[in-house]
Task: inverse folding
């Protein structure tokens, strides 16, 4: 089965035309570091990439720092403080190409569960000295603050997709990312549908492909960490999940985990009957 792919138009750094290695910076905001670790996990492939880029700022990997501007910035994490908001604007001004990596950076992440809730109440329960904790009331994606050239989804990102992006950058060819659902990846790899065969709740039908249907291949439902596909039919999936026995609260919890805000934007809650 063929995936539908969208071609991502990218203005590749001029340094490549000049035969120079593009400078790469990797930045962290509110996050768990998991997406940066996906980059380090590339191991041999990373060594091949490292030989063709100038790693100028990547504190997780090296203490060496080269001042900007940078050809490419990879940004992990969400904006949760005023200082974050100021820093991402500075990074944007220093970056020719800005690529956000992971659910935190592209959708606000799990930490966006606080959005619309009593953040001061959370702060006083969690911290012994809440007055020292400076935080915004929301966790928001990078694209809510500055223009973003490309988003790589997932919690964490798929390292194959990251390498594909870096290879497209280095070889100046078009980058093509899937637009279909995780279901198409299950079919392509021959994984039996966990929802049909085992009655397991799964967000695969509305989640953007890109992970090669990782969770269903281990007999688990998809939790939607790649966020919504193009034009997802959330209402139809709500009915299917209700038929499996989930009530409205259970369906809401499933939809609002890794991509708390992203599914909310495309969801129209409907009455479900069990
Ligand atoms: S997207 Fe997931 S793996 Fe990546 S930094 Fe955020 S919480 Fe960690
Ligand atoms: S199957 Fe779903 S939850 Fe699992 S890695 Fe893929 S998108 Fe993420």
Result:
């Amino acid at each position: 089965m063929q995936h539908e792919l969208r071609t991502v138009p990218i203005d590749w750094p001029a340094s490549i035309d000049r035969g120079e290695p593009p400078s790469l910076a990797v930045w962290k905001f509110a996050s768990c570091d998991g997406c940066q670790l996906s980059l380090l996990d590339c191991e041999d492939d990373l060594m091949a990439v490292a030989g063709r880029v100038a790693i100028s700022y990547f504190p997780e990997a090296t203490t060496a720092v080269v001042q900007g501007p940078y050809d490419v910035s990879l940004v992990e994490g969400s904006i949760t403080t005023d200082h974050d908001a100021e820093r991402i604007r500075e990074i944007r001004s220093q970056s020719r190409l800005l690529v956000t990596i992971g659910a935190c950076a592209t959708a606000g992440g799990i930490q966006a569960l606080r959005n619309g809730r009593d953040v001061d109440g959370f702060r006083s329960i969690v911290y012994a000295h809440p007055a020292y904790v400076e935080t915004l009331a929301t966790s928001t994606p990078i694209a809510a603050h500055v223009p973003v050239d490309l988003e790589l989804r997932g919690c964490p990102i798929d390292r194959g997709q990251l390498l594909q992006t870096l290879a497209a950058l280095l070889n100046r060819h078009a980058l093509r990312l899937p637009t279909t659902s995780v279901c198409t990846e299950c079919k392509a790899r021959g994984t039996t549908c966990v929802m049909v065969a085992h009655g397991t709740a799964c967000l695969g039908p509305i989640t953007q492909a890109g992970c090669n249907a990782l969770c269903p291949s281990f007999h688990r439902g998809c939790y939607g960490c790649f966020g919504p596909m193009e034009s997802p039919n959330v209402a139809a999936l709500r009915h299917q999940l209700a038929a499996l026995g989930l009530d409205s609260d259970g369906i809401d919890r499933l939809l609002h985990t890794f991509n708390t805000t992203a599914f909310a934007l495309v969801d129209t809650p409907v009455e479900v009957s069990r």
